[in-house]
Amino acid sequence: MTEHHLKVQRTARYYSSNVITAQTKQVWLVIHGFGQQAALFIQNFEFAFSSERVFVAPEALNRFYLKGSHGQVGATWMTKEDRLNEIADYIAYLDDLYDAVVGARADLKITVLGFSQGASTATRWAHATSKRIDRVIVYAGEVAPELVPLSASSGLRKTENHFIYGTADEFFPVQLMRDAQVHYSSLQFKVTEFEGGHIIQPDTLQQFLS
Prior knowledge:
23% helix, seven-stranded mixed sheet, 210 residues, Rossmann fold, alpha/beta, globular
């Protein structure tokens, strides 16, 4: 038996808070976690929607039923199966999304926030892309392990990097996150620790909205 690969076109889905206009100053690309949907995930940022700030939530290309063979559907950015091709595919997808949304608007401040599994996705993209990204926020998740320590050419050397986690996160215990800060030293993270669990907490993000 021989394994083969074939490039095909896919239709990707994403949601946005509004459209980019002459008044827009910031674009936030917010990347959801395992088993989530972009339509629900972007609702976590409604408190920050404004005419000057556009939020864009891409949905992962792989969908599945969360329980059994029917009911609620979630999405995942990758699994261990055919891992490298899935990573290459979502990096290309996010590049295309950037072009479609941001285009040539060099005046916009670009923030990429990755939540949970989306944190690894966001850091892989920021590491590999040639697109301009100003700020990366790793929120309640981990940096993709193969990226650390950073290579000299990593895009994460050009971005302002932030690491946010809760003290009661059931998936990423606080001590694990504190230990990770040492491991992530090459990313020069600015760290924000908040009291709470595996959630997007509006109060914690207020400092990043200006």
